[in-house]
Amino acid sequence: MTIKPELSLALRRIIHGVYIISTKNEGKVNAMTAAWVARASFEPPLITVAIGNTRHSHEMIKSSGIFAVNVLSVENIMLGKHFGLKTGKKTDKFADMDYDVKATGSPILKDCTAWLDCKVVSSIEAGDHTIFIGECLDGGVMREADTLIYDKEKFYR
User: Consecutive sets of 10 residues in the chain, 157 residues long: mean pLDDT of each?
Assistant: First the structure.
């Protein structure tokens, strides 16, 4: 399907933060950089993450039923690139990376701004992505900083 250039430009105007979505499955950890994260409910506290169906993390989240959202700040752009520019199928992205685990065992990066530890309560197939709805079991703020805003042209420079 070809998307009209005008539509593509309009869709880019929707503002997103930059997040590292991490997970653990069968003793292995992995994470990927994502921008499509949103709050879905106050009670219970639910969030959504849209994960590409071809991503290694997709199958790990689908199988394990858990994920964490690591919120990045402007100072974390290199961390975002580290987890977003190569696949976890071929690379241990957590080699020499400092992290903790909380309720689900999904990695919580020590250098992130804030984090949410979630269990999947539902999922929806959405074109070339799956929207995972996660209940936030735990979360916290590591430091006060503005969330990194995703801008494709600036991020990939």
Answer: 87 91 97 96 98 97 98 94 87 92 97 97 98 98 94 66
Distances (CA, A) of 124 to 43, 111, 112, 113: 20, 31, 28, 28
pTM of the full predicted structure? 0.93
Residue ranges of domains in the chain, CATH in brackets:
14-155 (2.30.110.10)
Cα–Cα distance for residue pair 7/43, rounded to 1 Å: 34
Alpha-carbon distance values, 34 to 17, 19, 21, 26, 44 (Å): 8, 5, 7, 22, 23
Name every residue whose Cβ is closer than 8 Å to that of residue 143 and which is 6 or more positions away in sequence.
Answer: 73, 113
